[in-house]
Design goal:
CATH class of the largest domain: Alpha Beta
CATH architecture of the largest domain: 3-Layer(aba) Sandwich
CATH superfamily of the largest domain: Type I PLP-dependent aspartate aminotransferase-like (Major domain)
Number of helices: 13
Strand order of the largest sheet: 2-8-7-6-5-3-4
Bound molecules: pyridoxal-5'-phosphate
Radius of gyration: 21 Å
Strand content: 5-15%
CATH topology of the largest domain: Aspartate Aminotransferase, domain 2
Largest sheet: 7 strands, mixed
Amino acid sequence: MISKKMYELGSKSSIIRELFMYGRQKAAEIGEENVYDFSLGSPSVPPPETVTNTLSDLLQRDNVHGYTPAAGHPSVRESIAKSINKRFGMKADPNRIYMTCGAAASLTCTIKALTVAGDEWIVLAPFFPEYKCFVESVGASIVVSQPNPDTMDIDFEDLEKCFSSKTKGLIINSPNNPSGFVYSEDTIKSLGAMLKDKSKENGHPIYLITDEPYREIVYGDVSVPYVPHYYQNTIVCYSYSKSFSLAGERIGYIYVSDGVEEGDQVFLAVCGAGRSMGFVCAPSIFQYVVSECVDTEIDISVYKENRDILYKELSAMGYHCIMPEGAFYLFVKTLDQDAEKFCEYAKTKYNLLLVPSNSFYVEGYMRISYCVKKDMILRSLKAFKQLALDFT
Ligand code: PLP
């Protein structure tokens, strides 16, 4: 007898993974140059030079491969806390930082730490589909709030309806995967005010998890509000997967922010959750790497160029695109309301691999990951054009 729930999770792969595998197989059959794979969100630029240099240097040092304390090396937690304080004006205590294997582990540990069976977590569509799996795995359920359908901003009227006496918290992700949308300061302020009221009504804190792997990937003068300034009971889930292009190395952190009620207990529950799932002692050498490179600025010009080409060219072809202010995804209205059907057509007819928005719990859009080679984008434009013509 095995766990039916785990079996189900393991036997179904995500549509994104399926598309990617399809692309690999198709490329082997018809040539790499004839497949336009926009499925995965895996960074296409190398890590910053300081990161690779620090890694090479660390490899020459002694004592870098051993266990660290479960929550991470004290010096690493200290340098991350210092950086949070310098960059965001917080008073982060290193004892509230827990090093993790990327954002997925940050989220699973935080959700597990806070949840009791029967709780509800509100998630704001469009959202990273793994949230459902993380929440349901601890006996809770998700309640989905739909966004403003044209902008992907929060629809506060819809959100209001999602609260109940079982609400444990809310998960946000800005810059957003899949829409590239960035919540403004006004939006975050309104959200904070709503959560404060709801916590009062419910008689217990409603937690806000802010999932921020794309924080540094923003274009122009867009700024990403630092959420703990606007709502006290905020837990930050961060990862270096995207900003430092270290997705395969699995490194990130949880910050139980300064104002969280009974924050020390919450932090210990995070430690307990990490322990119960074996998420202890995040990869040591990458703890040291991120610690030494913590304030390294990243170059996002490649993503910006890709974004600008796709936005301009697709808009000219008649596609309605949401101009992404951050991350490396373009969210585009499908030319058939049935996004799955539209993306399937694009896949089989033109080898254009696009992710239907149903995967992210909204209808009528597709996600184009533009963390790809510019050359592939340029080659794909003919296929996008033909696809548009087939639906007009
Ligand atoms: N959250 C969001 C919104 C993501 O897009 C991703 C990865 O694509 C993750 C979490 C997981 O990130 P990590 O690879 O750091 O676990």
